[in-house]
Design a protein that fits this description.
3-stranded antiparallel sheet; 2 domains; Immunoglobulin-like; 6-stranded mixed sheet; 1 helix; alpha+beta
């Protein structure tokens, strides 16, 4: 019985190690979901150059694709991610992290509170794994001034 228990424990340990290696590989690089060439994400409001109060609503727009929550794999759909005051786009071959604001529930607007001054806003669509599509569906970067 001890040999059987030892062999079972060894097999379980090796299986767990293999799973850990495979999981690490998946998190380092994930294949991108396809997006139609005509897909377009954009910020409906506020408009570029708008003057806004410290708390304001941002409304998202999307053409050529559908909105679906994170975790739901459905062709030509995704969910919004908002970049606030970012100089660079996130990596396209891995899930977007904490440096972007996620809307994994499929939300199409949000209320932001930002300090006074000039800020940039930009949307990028993510697939069911939070990975940007191929080609990436990215909005024009807009600038707002908080008064």
């Amino acid at each position: 019985m001890n040999k059987l228990a030892t062999l079972s424990l060894l097999a379980l340990t090796l299986s767990s190690a293999t799973l850990a290696v495979n999981t690490a590989q998946v998190h380092n690089k994930i294949a991108q979901s396809d997006a139609p060439a005509n897909a377009n994400v954009y910020i409906i409001s506020p408009t570029d150059g708008a003057v806004v109060s410290e708390t304001f609503t941002v409304t998202f727009g999307l053409k050529g694709m559908g909105v679906s929550p994170a975790g739901l794999e459905k062709k030509h759909t995704g969910h919004h991610h908002l970049l606030i005051d970012k100089k660079e786009l996130p990596a396209f071959d891995k899930p977007m992290g904490g440096d972007v604001k996620h809307f994994g529930g499929g939300q199409t607007q949000t209320t932001l509170t930002l300090p006074k001054g000039e800020h940039t806003l930009q949307l990028i669509l993510g697939d069911h794994h939070h990975v940007p599509h191929k080609p990436a569906v990215i909005s024009k970067k807009i600038t707002v001034t908080v008064k």
